[in-house]
Each structure stands twice: as C-alpha cells, then as structure tokens.
Amino acid sequence: MKPLAGKVAIVTGAGSGIGKAVSLLLSRSGSRVVLAARNESRLSAVREEIENGGGEAMVVATDLTRDEELERLVNRVVEKWSSVDYLINNAGWGKHAPVVKAKIKDWDETLQVNLRAPMILTKLVLPTLIQKGGGAIVNIASIAAKMGGANAAVYTASKFGLLGFTQSLYEEVREYGIKVAAILPGFVDTPLIPATAKMDRSKMIRPEDVAEAVLFVLNSSPACCPVEITIRPQRTPYL
Ligand SMILES: NC(=O)c1ccc[n+]([C@@H]2O[C@H](COP(=O)([O-])OP(=O)(O)OC[C@H]3O[C@@H](n4cnc5c(N)ncnc54)[C@H](OP(=O)(O)O)[C@@H]3O)[C@@H](O)[C@H]2O)c1
Q1: What pLDDT band is residue 132 in, cutting at 50, 70 and 90?
Q2: Of the N and C termini of the chain, which has fewer Cβ atoms inside 10 Å?
Q3: For ligand 1, mutation pick of 10, 38, 165, 214 (most atoms within 8 Å of CB)
Q4: Which residues lie closer than 8 Å to 152 by C-beta, 6 or more apart?
C-alpha cells in the first residue's frame, strides 16, 4: 500500500520546477493530484507523465490572481473527487527590480500569486480538512522569508508574509490534526532562476529535493508537525 493512497492533493504551479517535481512524487506515493497553473499544455504534459506511471491527475487551468478561478479550482476538485486532503501552495513569481524603479503592477501580481492566493485557497479547503480532522497545507516559501535581498523587496515581503501566515495557521488548526508547514529553499535549479544568472546551476538544490521535504511533511507522524523546513544548497552556487 502506497503511503498516500486514496488522498487528493492540489498543487499550484504544477507545470514546471518544484511544482512538477512535487506532483510527480505525490503521485508515485499514491495520491491523486490536481495540477493548477495558467499554462495548460505544460500541465497536460505532467498529467500524461503521471498517467503513464499508473497515477491519476486532473488539470485545472487557473490564474491565481483571479478570485473566481480560485473558487472554481476547489469546486472542480470537490465535484470530481469529492474531497481534498492536501494543498501545496507552490506557485510563485517575482521580478527583480529596485524599489524605486519597480512597477506597482508587478508588486500586485507578486503579492497576489505568492501570498493572497495561498491564503484564499487555504480558506476554501479548510472546512473540508476540519471536517476530516486531518490533511495538510504546505506553503513553498523561500529562504527569502528570513532574509532580505536587494532588488527583491516585494518578493521577500510576500515570503515573510507567507511564513507568518503559516505559523499563525498552524496555531489555529493544530488541534484538528491538520499539518501546516512552510518550506524555505535556497537556490533551486528551476526556470524561476534566469538562464542569464551568473551561477553554477549544478550546485543548486534539485526540485526533487524540495518535493522530498513536502512528502516528509505529509508522511510525518500524527504526533508532530514539521512547521518550518529550511533547505540550503550544500555548496555555494555563487561563482
Ligand atoms: N527556484 C528557486 O531558487 C526558489 C527558491 C526558493 C523558493 N522558490 C519558490 O518555489 C516556488 C516554485 O517556483 P519554481 O522555482 O519551481 O519556479 P517555476 O518553475 O517558475 O514555477 C513557478 C510556477 O508558478 C506558476 N505561476 C506563476 N504565476 C501564476 C499565476 N498567476 N497563476 C497560476 N500559476 C502561476 C507558473 O505556472 P504558469 O506560468 O503556467 O502559470 C509556474 O509553474 C515559488 O513559490 C518560488 O518562489 C523557488
């Protein structure tokens, strides 16, 4: 029996990078996976990979900046699989720019995708998790949730916010048996890091390493909750 057999997981940003690795690993562990992001063809490719491996997945094209699409996502899952066990808030975005030059439109999008959507999706799935008395909400934050960096002020603010939301939510729902966790990776080799970055990508964390941390949370004993997991690259990717 696979450890997550019979479970349903929603993964945002599932078409690439960490979200794709999480989706594949949760499927291999027995969970049905709901793949959410904007780019439907990338999501369909992940669904195909899951189905070829004998798993089950559904694609729900979702723009996380649109409230009505967040509601539609959760409704579609409940209609098809009658339940939700895990919400993996993974999607994220930010544009490097100094505060003085940055566009407020980009700030709004960063805050919507990285912070507001995870909060709203949490609100939408919580009644089901509370009723079940279990499940998990895992937020992919960043090491940027602990330390500021130039040209990334609002991305950093969104991740500090996501960590604060995680810590408060854990206190709020721990007695229901619901696990709430934030994962704080350093540099991960994904499309989020531009190809032009002067870094050694071979020294970055692999997306699969972050997926293993998500699985660790979901598989953790009912007596504990790994509320915060920091993952740093073993060797520095800076050249
Ligand atoms: N890579 C790193 O070094 C690193 C380090 C720490 C934390 N993280 C965090 O890890 C998470 C995953 O990022 P990644 O590194 O795997 O990069 P990635 O491959 O670029 O993944 C980001 C995902 O977010 C989705 N997304 C962006 N805007 C969206 C929107 N409006 N609606 C729906 N989905 C949206 C994208 O899908 P669509 O374009 O199809 O919508 C994409 O699949 C992010 O939260 C990021 O902040 C990354």
Answers
A1: very high
A2: N
A3: 38
A4: 94, 96, 144
Exactly one of 155, 170, 176, 238 is catalytic; name it: 155
Cα 179 to middle of ligand 1, angstroms: 22
- Tell me, yes or no, if the pTM score tops 0.70: yes
Q: Does residue 176 carry a catalytic annotation?
A: no
pLDDT in tens, 208-217: 999 999 999 9
Architecture of the structural domain at 8-231: 3-Layer(aba) Sandwich (3.40)
Ligand 1: nearest atom to the Cα of 12: 34
Return the residue whose CA atom lies nearest to atom 19 of ligand 1.
17
pLDDT at 216: 98
Q: How many whole angstroms separate alpha carbon 229 and alpha carbon 223?
A: 17
